[in-house]
Specification:
This protein is mainly alpha-helical. Helices cover 62% and strands 10% of the residues. The protein has helices spanning 2-8, 15-36, 73-114; strands at 39-41, 50-52, 58-60, 69-71. A two-stranded antiparallel sheet has the order 1-4. Strands 2-3 form a two-stranded antiparallel sheet. Strand 2 (50-52) and strand 3 (58-60) form a beta hairpin. Helix 2 crosses helix 3. The longest helix has 42 residues, at 73-114. It is flat. The chain starts with a helix and ends with a helix.
Length: 115
């Protein structure tokens, strides 16, 4: 009986681990793609920069403004995060600079009061 139960038993597959691994690989791959190739072809004009109007004429694509390229969504998020990080750093520097300026003004005032 132990031989039959051992032969029919299947090893358990951890689906949550496999799903997590797949999600990590896809995310890292997309981040690399956004870093290496930040633009893609416009879907509306297929990278041509112009489309046919309703009346048969050709006009500039309004989505890509005639360039034929669009910035990837992941790259837009990356740029936004970089801007926010830079603004936060500049804000912290400004706070430090303001505190230094206040100490400097206070020390000059103290020197004037001594004389």
């Amino acid at each position: 009986m132990t031989v039959l139960s051992a032969a029919t038993a299947t090893p358990g597959v951890d689906l949550s681990g496999l799903l997590t691994f797949t999600l990590i690989v896809v995310t890292v791959g997309y981040l690399l793609l956004c870093m290496l190739l930040p633009v893609r072809q416009c879907r509306r004009c297929h990278g041509m920069g112009r489309i046919r109007s309703r009346f048969g004429g050709i006009r500039t694509c309004g989505r890509c403004r005639g360039q034929g390229l669009r910035i990837r969504t992941g790259r837009r998020v990356w740029n936004w995060l970089a801007r926010e990080f830079d603004e936060a750093r500049r804000g912290m520097r400004t706070d430090r600079t303001d505190a230094h300026a206040q100490r400097s003004r206070q020390s000059r005032k103290d020197i004037r009061d001594e004389h």
